[in-house]
Design brief:
The protein contains 4 helices and 2 strands. By secondary structure, it is mainly alpha-helical. A two-stranded antiparallel ribbon has the order 1-2. 22% of the residues are buried.
């Protein structure tokens, strides 16, 4: 009888240790996953914030009276112009392109990348229009298109980050 009791006691103790280890492992895994998600959310938020600042600086530069911008026809999209900047405007363009690449890299949802692309295309259109006319003569609908694209981008970001609309 003592052998059966000892065996049962040892088995129950071993089962308790296994169950405790499993629950501890599961809890640590959940904590790691939550921390990982929080880190990525912070990375995405930072990337989106920097992209927004970059395209606003790009547009502000393009609207400067001293900005020297030229435009050439787009090779694949008839009727669309590609803006080219001098050495003073090139950093704005390079920063914008780099931040857009970062957005593409860290975005979780394709909808966020698509809305960021609409913003990028629209600010390029503003710069291309500025190459041919003064800032005051750029068609107002181009700025309305940018405002719409920005709202769509912000909405996509909020959905991706799990924020309420």
């Amino acid at each position: 009888m003592t052998v059966a009791t000892s065996t049962t006691t040892a088995a129950v103790a071993l089962l308790g240790v296994l169950l405790g280890g499993y629950l501890s492992f599961r809890n640590q895994d959940r904590l790691w996953a939550r921390d990982h998600a929080r880190q990525w959310r912070d990375i995405r938020l930072s990337a989106y914030r920097v992209f927004i600042a970059a395209y606003r600086h790009y547009v502000a530069f393009a609207l400067e009276p001293t900005a020297n911008i030229t435009a050439a026809p787009h090779p694949r999209h008839p009727g669309e112009l590609i803006p080219f900047f001098d050495e003073f405007g090139r950093p704005y363009k390079e920063r914008l392109e780099g931040e857009f690449a970062t957005v593409r890299l860290v975005s979780e949802l394709p909808e966020t990348v698509q809305s960021a692309n609409r913003v990028l295309v629209t600010v390029r259109q503003i710069a291309a229009a500025r190459a041919t006319v003064a800032a005051a003569e750029i068609p107002p609908d181009t700025f309305e298109t940018l405002a719409t694209a920005e709202r769509e981008f912000l909405s996509a970001i909020r959905r991706e980050l799990g924020l309420t609309s």
